[in-house]
Write a structure and sequence with these properties.
The protein has 13 helices and five strands. The chain is mainly α. The strands form two sheets. Strands 1-2-3 form a three-stranded parallel β-sheet. Helix 3 crosses helix 12 and helix 10 crosses helix 12. The radius of gyration is 21 Å and the shape is globular. The structure holds tryptophan.
Length: about 325
């Protein structure tokens, strides 16, 4: 049998989707959907590891689904769902937590960062977050997990947990691999281009649904350097290099072409040109997302259908795991 490899990935609805999440993740997913058997999840259970406003979380979770679709992910082709709709994630997470060492979780750099940032609210959930992520992946026997570099350590831990479980109970989990797509653009903050663009730093961040005038303002204000040459040089010109990356991802041009295009022009021309390219890129996505947000019945049908398909697969794995660890079958 020549089954397609399976992919699982997810984004937290802890803020609005960003240009970084589009260019770095979702755009790749739209290519992967043709070759792989994909599950794309809205990981709301991960989002509550730090405080969320409930009404906002609810709205953003549905909006994120609309935006996934507007970006070109096809709900007929992929399983698209909301994590909390599939209770098996929490159930498997408990079992896997019993196969994870306290010390392993303490070494996670994201935990260290986040617990510094949220020093007044370092919860057990924040600590065990990577176990839930391992459950997300292992429940579906995923082969590949497209993630950014910042999530590599979590995928490594997931592999360790899976190998440990399989060592005790052979043939339970597929061992997944992190998958960093070649064509992914790593988009950095417009305000501090040495850092990844992040929804938690709204200053340097362009959101997928930002109004054109806000996008233009953010690009015009982007931090650059005191030279005048539009040249790709991450080391010495991180701001301009980031703008070139964004420009090329938005237009499909190569870096060399873009450098040539702006060779005789200063940043005063270049920066708004990048802004305009992004406005044009996002315009059809925003229109489609706006249209979908008015069709609540359709979105509801998509996430209900997604949850049902996900549950079917998740349940197969969970039953196997429960049997292996020695739980009495409920029926
Ligand atoms: N932790 C990921 C992030 O913050 C989101 C995530 C949760 C995820 N579960 C996942 C990504 C499973 C890939 C696979 O970016």
């Amino acid at each position: 049998m020549d089954a397609k490899k399976r992919i699982f990935s997810g984004i937290q609805p802890s803020g609005e989707l960003t240009l970084g999440s589009y260019m770095g993740a979702i755009k790749n997913w739209t290519a992967l959907q043709h070759e792989y058997d994909c599950l794309f999840c809205i990981v709301d259970m991960h989002a509550i590891t730090v405080r969320q406003n409930p009404a906002d979380l609810r709205r953003r979770s549905v909006a994120q689904l609309a935006q996934y679709i507007a970006c070109g992910l096809d709900p007929e082709k992929n399983i698209m769902f909301i994590q909390s709709h599939v209770p098996q994630h929490a159930e498997l997470s408990w079992v896997l937590g019993c196969f994870t060492q306290f010390g392993e979780l303490g070494r996670m750099t994201q935990f260290k960062d986040k617990s510094q940032k949220h020093a007044d609210n370092i919860t057990a959930g924040l600590f065990t977050y990577p176990v839930l992520m391992a459950a997300d992946i292992l429940l579906y026997q995923a082969d590949l997990v497209p993630v950014g570099a910042d999530q590599m350590q979590h995928v490594e831990l997931c592999r360790d947990i899976a190998n440990r479980f399989n060592y005790n109970f052979p043939d339970t989990f597929t061992i997944p691999e992190a998958f960093i797509p070649k064509m992914g653009a790593r988009v950095m903050s417009l305000g501090a281009p040495e850092n990844k663009m992040s929804k938690s730093e709204p200053d340097g961040c362009v959101f997928l649904m930002d109004k054109p005038e806000d996008i233009m303002r953010k690009f015009k204000r982007a931090v650059t350097d005191c030279e005048t040459a539009v040249r790709y040089d991450v080391e010495n010109k991180p701001g301009i290099s980031n703008l070139l990356t964004i420009y090329c991802a938005a237009t499909g041009k190569t870096i060399a072409d873009a450098e040539a295009e702006f060779a005789d022009q200063g940043y005063g021309i270049f920066k708004p040109a990048v802004g305009e390219a992004v406005v044009e890129l996002l315009r059809p996505i925003q229109e489609e997302a706006g249209r979908l947000m008015k069709d609540k019945a359709y979105l509801e049908q998509v996430y209900q259908d997604g949850a049902q398909k996900a549950q079917y697969l998740a349940n197969k794995t969970l039953r196997k795991v429960y049997k292996k660890v020695g739980f009495v079958p409920a029926k």
